[in-house]
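It would be a great kindness if you could assist me with a short task in structural biology. I am sending you one protein, given as its amino acid sequence and as whole-number tokens for its backbone shapes. I would ask you to consider whether the tokens describe a fold that such a sequence might reasonably adopt. The full record is reproduced below for your convenience.
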Amino acid sequence: MNIAMTVQESPTGSLFSSSLAVPSEELFAWHERPGAFQRLQPPWEAVELVEAPTSVKDGSRAVLRVPLLGPIRATWVAEHRDYVAGRQFRDVQVRGPFARWVHTHRVTSEGPERARLDDDIEYALPMGFLGRWLGGASVRKKLRRMFTYRHATMRQDLAMHAKAGGTRPMKIAMTGASGLLGSALTSFLTTGGHEVVAYARNPKGSDEGRAVWDPAAGTIDASALEGVDAVIHLAGESIAGERWSYAKKARIMDSRVQGTRLLAETLAKLENPPKTFISASAIGFYGARGDEVLTEQSGAGTGFLAEVCTAWEDACEPARAAGIRVVNPRFGIVLSPAGGALKQMLPVFKFGGGGRIGSGKQYMSWVSIDDAVGAVHHALITDRVEGPVNVVAPQAATNLEFTKALGRALRRWTIFPLPAFMARLAFGKEMAEALLLTGARVEPRALVDIGYEFLQPDLLPALERLLGKTEAA
């Protein structure tokens, strides 16, 4: 995958350079905004952010817990130094797995609308020559994978923000901001200059930029919603993780309907309500429909998930009646190794134990985490978007096709099927049928009609990017 990034390598350093169609001031500002640090972390790296840097200026620190070997993790403390406004800053390892690590971020103007980014890394491995002999090639490969991802992400993010044109910075309230999609969306929006106010039931102390709500109790800090430009509602009980008991199903339904209704009714009563309310839904709305092609014009299906999604979307009605633009993104299977279905699949597939589920003919309507973020952003800035929007890739894949693509991305065999009866035994009949053994062939008709350009429209390249299986040409 060629992303126009050049690479220079030596046993003691690597230089990654990209020329980007953006003014140098904007490229440097992107790095200085909240969320940039998280946005650049590859999703396949199980990095735990213990302490986020407050800025890129001298003295600010990041504290990470990083994988070292198997389950062994190391603490990495990096400090920013040598800040030059608009031009450079450095990350210097204070404590960590390297004997020495200095990463210089350097921005150089190449004209009014173009700039070059240099990521210049100088490092030394522990144990001198022995360390270089044992781990040098592995470190260089890992850095190529990481910075291929970082430069591609920066390129696509800057392009999406540029397409927003004259959209002014917005203040956006968000529920579910700490989840898989919410965290990616928050970091993307803040690097674009927007402000995100995260709603949580248990915010950490008096964290700035957070507000309190409790859908089950029917309470919400309405003052934090006054004057916001938009609300993005992503919160809800996970549909996976445990069998669908009566209690679990009640939590799934209540968490979505109660929370959405509370938000919609609160927004309708505000003196200065937001212009836009984006409230998540899912393609479970359509039920199990075999190979029938489904668009936003298709009616609701049958089954528990269809009932949940219908009630979930209906709960938005008070906001719609108050004149607020309501968008219901119906998400397919959001792919990211950092969470969700793909994360659950990876351990089995990495050890060569993956295979089709049941017949393998059931459709999986998927979307990369990049396009899930991009679709929500597009709906946010496009006033004519309203109602249901299918957030799925242009081409759904059968379970067998998905299995083969994931095996190819990981360079692993996929010859061990999971029979339908075993899925039912493991997950319960209702849950197995709804999540594993049946599917829906969904098309993103509304996204295409409003001119959204997919970042990862094809399954194999999407998986290779998300799993770090691409390197700069």
